[in-house]
Amino acid sequence: METKRNRKIFNIAMVVLIVCIAACGIIAIGNFKGWFNDDSSVVKVAEVQGVTNIERKGVAYALKKNAQIQPGDNVETKNGSQVLFNVEKDNTIRLNDNTEILFKTAKKDDVGIQINHGEIFVDAGKAPKKFYFKYGGSMAEIKGTVFSISAQDGSSTLNVFEGKVTVKTKAGKTYDIKKGKCLSIAKSGKGKIDEDIRDIQAKSLNDFTINSALKCKDSKKLCFSKTVLKKVIADREKEKTVAAAGKDSGDNKDGEDESETASDKDGHGGTGGGSSSSKHSKSKQKSENTDSSAGNASNGGSQGKKCNITIRCDTILNNMGDLEPGKERFVPGSGVILGTTTVEFTDGETVFDVLKRVCSRANIQLEYSWTPMYESYYIEGINNLYEFDCGEQSGWMYKVDGWFPNYGCSKYVLKGGDTIVWCYTCKGLGADVGGSVM
User: Fold this and answer.
1) CB 3.0-4.6 Å disulfide test: which of 222, 279, 290, 425 passes with 161?
2) Across the strands, what pairs with 119?
3) Which tens digits make up the pLDDT trace of 4-14?
4) pLDDT per residue as tens digits for the range 333-354
């Protein structure tokens, strides 16, 4: 009888222990995932598009809508994903895809974020008393404004669309960046860092930035009107449609509508592709179409995603007097080295991967080098046409869906339907092909 009673007590104790363990587990998971809201936090997830991960106290899991952010949270968006955060009242932070940020603080009147890499757009209608962003060794302090930050390896750009942002750089300099201006910071070799303030050009902005600006609560106060921003998007869609049809869309030439420049100054400003004519410290690697792995579009297990790519050098036709003697034979009469070609690619592949593939398949000479400071490949020559072959500002640039990225081609992760154009610039560090001067 005593044994039966002891067994019953033991069973009850085991049940209580199991319930306690389960409860502790639920509480632990809840604390990690924010099920039990931290009233001191003022940052909340408003939207999640695609796959986004959050790492909290060493545990990683998928970020969900309505999650409350805590100090120390690391958030990373994957390719094709975006996240929108609400901060206190009337403030939003939007993350582009392939972006990683760390929340340093997230409490009332004190919100701080470190951008490890990627791009954000901030609409701070009523910023917290202390609101700052660290990126690439710089720190931006906000007092209520609309701006974007792009932080890539070796370079960064801050665009101010409304108000003013104070930035203290790694070099110890302090700048007040006003409406319609951008601060570009880039390594230029031998440890030198170039810091430059320029006017923003609407055409230099990528679709993420433009669409984010169009969603601002008070877009009328921005340095660009909705009409100008929508026109940029429409022009890119038109160019993409024409390119996909295999036609020659023609690139933007000098004489762009001056309304696309925030301060109506011709030929300056923006966050464009960065001319390939810039000299950097590079580790040479050559490809003379012997890369067998790049010779087949289906290598690596294609998942059916496709993009279009074109290679052109038609600007040289207008600058033949500047061309190096003997190079004429490498310039096609049409100026098109590779007509619009559809290529399959796998998740994670870049513009560089596709360029290598099509050049190998079409037997087009390609030479490139690794740039350690930017952690990206740099295109030196295509079809035996190299940087500086047609003037001291000449070289290769690329654009995707009409936008010239301000980072290397092996950093641009492709999405299905992207249209890539490689073009040779001769004048204005890209101005003659529709790019922005950096």
Assistant:
1) 222
2) 150
3) 666 766 677 67
4) 999 999 999 999 999 999 999 9
